[in-house]
Write a structure and sequence with these properties.
By secondary structure, this protein is mostly helical. 70% of the residues lie in helices and 0% in strands. The two termini are 51 Å apart.
């Protein structure tokens, strides 16, 4: 396979790579970077590709491994190494117990809006929010699972429409 044929074939996979990269990164910019890194590695290591094998699988493997390696490097960079004798930096918590006035206000408004929901939507919504599974809610309220899911969905929808000012 000539270099031109190889380049043409890997470029023909761009749409597939775009989809796969986005599924890994969940961000369009990061996906584009990942695609570019994949192309660079594929072209650089073209001599390692066996034409008797599947080019698409080979490119996907390069992309997956590139993503994993970047993720591992990112985790390593964010790791704190504390060489102090008493582990001052690890034991020093930057967290405070104070709640910002904004978040306190938002929480109050959210609770008020939840309480204003009709009982048929509020009760399943609150139970789901407290961690109950759909099946448990259905059994306790003597409803079908579909009805529970529907009521939770419509409860969320009503809350979202009422709390538009608090959305990004």
């Amino acid at each position: 396979m000539t270099a031109i044929e190889f380049n043409h074939q890997i470029l023909s996979l761009k749409d597939n790579l775009q989809y796969f990269a986005y599924s890994l990164t969940s961000n369009q910019e990061d996906a584009n970077d990942l695609i570019q890194d994949t192309y660079v590695k594929a072209i650089t290591h073209k001599d390692k590709f066996d034409p008797a094998t599947n080019l698409k699988a080979w490119i996907y493997t390069i992309m997956k491994n590139t993503f994993i390696n970047k993720y591992r490097k990112k985790i390593k960079v964010n790791t704190i190494i504390d060489n102090t004798k008493d582990l001052y930096f690890l034991n020093n918590s930057n967290k405070t117990d104070m709640v910002s006035p904004d978040s306190n206000y938002i929480h109050t408004e959210l609770l008020k809006e939840v309480k204003d929901l009709q009982d048929e939507h509020r009760v399943p919504f609150e139970m789901h929010f407290q961690g109950y599974k759909y099946k448990e809610i259905a059994e306790q309220l003597n409803l079908s699972i579909g009805t529970v899911k529907s009521r939770i969905f419509f409860g969320r929808k009503k809350l979202m429409s009422r709390l538009k000012d608090f959305q990004n």
